[in-house]
Design brief:
Order of helices and strands: HHEEHH
Radius of gyration: 16 Å
Distance between the termini: 22 Å
Number of strands: 2
Strand content: under 5%
Strand order of the largest sheet: 1-2
Shape: elongated
């Protein structure tokens, strides 16, 4: 995310969105948290959570906002802040 925000290079945005997609699969809806580690198919891993997963919330918010910006009919800028500031 930071690399995209600084450079505007689309490969960094795509990588962040892909990472968020993978991370979102670790969400445990019963406990409303992101699983820290372990195979998702193993029920013994269903409750593994650590504080460090909180650092991933920015990644999920970033990808969510990019998905909303890309939606048909959605107004708003999908440009990095560095580009938006220099174009105004």
């Amino acid at each position: 995310m930071t690399a995209w925000r600084l450079t505007g290079d689309e490969k960094w945005k795509a990588g962040a969105v892909q990472a968020a997609s993978s991370l979102s699969k670790r969400y445990n809806p019963a406990g409303k948290f992101i699983r820290a580690w372990g195979a998702l198919s193993d029920p013994n891993n269903a409750g593994r959570v650590i504080m460090d997963t909180m650092m991933n919330l920015d990644l999920l918010a970033f990808a969510s906002e990019k998905a909303k910006s890309a939606a048909p009919g959605r107004r708003g800028s999908a440009e990095p802040a560095s580009r938006a500031a220099s174009s105004g």
